[in-house]
Amino acid sequence: MKTIIAANWKMNKTRPQAVAVAGDVAASLKESPVPEREVLIFPPATCLDCVSAAADNMYETGIQNLYPAEEGAFTGEIAPGMVHDAGGTWALIGHSERRHIFMEPDDFIATKVNFTLAHDLKVMLCVGETLPEREAGQLRAVLLRQLTSALSGQAAGAVGRIAIAYEPVWAIGTGKTAGSQEILEAHEIIRDILRMVFTSGDEVPILYGGSVKPANAAEILALDNVNGLLVGGASLEARSFLDIVRAGL
Ligand code: 13P
């Protein structure tokens, strides 16, 4: 499977700022192709169309969140059809900021995963424990709950259209990257759970996210069961994101 390097821009960038970075990333990938990597960008919804256009087929794009309905009276929400229309092919579901700031529960996230896949978008499902959960020895229990609730209804055909992002909540935006042992342990637990849920669970990519930088990307990518990276802060500038795309090559 190809290593996925994904940018989550969160609530950053106006349209001109987004197009500038998206264009620089596309130009660089065109000039020096990186066939070993699958590159994705999740811009804010307001920029999804212009980033998709600026991608110039060098990478795919996705929405950071969506609502599980085709249309209707859901003020402020985005439907899968709108994502297609704006050129997106992926949806980020269950990011820890959605779970913890916007209080999205597991069953709502499961509904979103089902709806997203049924509407022909690929899903990047984010999971991860908080610091109190980790300190209470609940890592496996939390990952099991988050993954089985979101995935156990899925048919085998979902493999190939789902990626998992392990993002320990305590490492997001804190500058505190999880250590190699912590990443190895969590990714092995996730792989075991994926094997329980899908007969071809080995084929589901598992990305690591949480304070990934150009300086630590290669080391993290070299770990067992790490099939990619989901990058927040360091993806906001083309140069640092591209350094992460090329890390370890
Ligand atoms: P940072 O890379 O800024 O820690 O963010 C990680 C993240 O939440 C990506 O989805």
Description:
The protein is α/β, with parallel strands linked by helices and 249 residues long. It is built from ten helices and eight strands. Strands 1-2-3-4-5-6-7-8 form an eight-stranded parallel barrel, surrounded by six helices. Bound molecules: 1,3-dihydroxyacetonephosphate. 1,3-dihydroxyacetonephosphate is lined by residues 8, 95, 167, 172-173, 209-212, 230-234.
Tags for this model:
binds 1,3-dihydroxyacetonephosphate; 249 residues
Give the SSE map:
Layout: E1 3-8, H1 15-31, E2 37-42, H2 48-54, E3 60-63, H3 80-85, E4 90-93, H4 96-100, H5 106-118, E5 122-127, H6 131-135, H7 139-151, E6 162-166, H8 180-197, E7 206-209, H9 214-221, E8 228-231, H10 238-245
Parallel strand pairs: 1-2, 1-8, 2-3, 3-4, 4-5, 5-6, 6-7, 7-8
Bound molecules: 1,3-dihydroxyacetonephosphate.
Mean pLDDT: 96
Shape: globular
Question: What is the topology, as strand order, of the major beta sheet?
Answer: 1-2-3-4-5-6-7-8
Tally the helices: what do you get?
10
**Assembly state here?**
single chain
Ligands present = 1,3-dihydroxyacetonephosphate
